[in-house]
Design a protein that fits this description.
Layout lengths: L1 H12 L26 H12 L14 H13 L7 H21 L7 E5 L9 H6 L6 H9 L8 H12 L3 E9 L3 H11 L6 E5 L8 H14 L3 E7 L2 H4 L7 E4 L9
Parallel strand pairs: 1-2, 1-4, 2-3, 4-5
Pfam families: Acid_phosphat_B
Keywords: Signal
Organism: Edaphobacter aggregans
Length: 263
């Protein structure tokens, strides 16, 4: 399996497996690239020009400028400039995951109970429009209102493709999310509105789980799936904490997420 996954990676990077031509979803008012905003190239040109001027006394700057980093992130998310396209990179990883799932299913044994585990935020659903509206910050109250709203039923196409392939092959799909259980009704509604139909389980943090480290919480929930007699063939998430720990999948797929980090 390791050799197969390595082969998929090389194949994808060399163009053997092409991601769909994808871009950012359509969002409402707020956010977006402001007219007249400096480009990454112009910022680098300004710095290079100043560095070559002997009348400038330059400061040591070991940390990157946060504003400039945010411009680069915005370019990557909007698929403009020279920094690539987040959505294309995301879809390319889903293409690799689909191929890996097909390989695993080719060797399944009769009567086996197989499971795929999916994270939700930035894995199955995207919060991009809210992140964009907050200028890629994180305002808890605004974010929670967004996740509870019908607006947040924004599907990540690659996730839905893999979900449907798994279901068509008789594989049960479980969602394990770090969201609090108070968002269960909204989460169920938005998953269904995004096209996810027929999942086997949906785990949200409840009780003591709300203060548990993410790795421990998700390990605990995966162990519950294994205890039901399932073989977890694949787990997909945008954070390392979605994937590491115990009761891990045979194939763990790490998606790109340049927006935030959850330990």
């Amino acid at each position: 399996m390791r050799d197969f996954l390595r082969l998929i990676g090389v194949w994808a990077l060399t163009g053997g497996m092409c991601a769909a031509q994808v871009g950012p979803p359509a969002c409402g008012a707020g956010g977006g690239v402001r007219p007249g905003r400096p480009t990454d190239a112009s910022i680098r040109a300004t710095a290079a020009s100043a560095a070559g001027d002997p009348t400038f006394l330059l400061a040591a700057e070991p940390m990157p400028n946060f504003g400039v980093a945010r411009f680069r992130l915005q370019d990557y998310a909007e698929c403009i400039g020279e920094n690539g396209c987040y959505w294309a990179d995301l879809d390319a990883q889903w293409v690799r995951a689909e191929a890996a799932l097909e390989h695993v299913l080719a060797g399944r044994k009769e009567g086996e109970k197989l499971a795929v585990v999916l994270d939700i935020d930035e894995t199955s659903l995207t919060n991009y429009c809210e992140m964009r509206r907050e200028d890629y910050g994180f305002i808890v109250q605004m974010y929670n209102v967004w996740m509870a709203s019908p607006e947040s039923a924004m599907v990540i196409p690659g996730a839905l493709r893999l979900f449907n392939k798994a279901r068509a092959a008789g594989v049960d799909v479980f969602f394990i999310t770090g969201r609090a259980d108070e968002l269960r009704q909204a989460t169920e509604r938005n998953l269904a509105a995004a096209g996810y139909k027929g999942w086997r389980g949906l785990a949200l943090r409840t009780g003591p789980q709300k203060t548990m480290p993410t790795i421990d919480y998700k390990s605990e929930e995966r162990q519950k799936i294994v205890a039901q007699g399932y073989r977890i063939v694949m787990s997909v998430g945008d954070q390392w904490s979605d994937l590491k720990g115990t009761a891990t999948a045979e194939v763990s797929v790490k998606l790109p997420n340049p927006f935030y980090y959850l330990p």
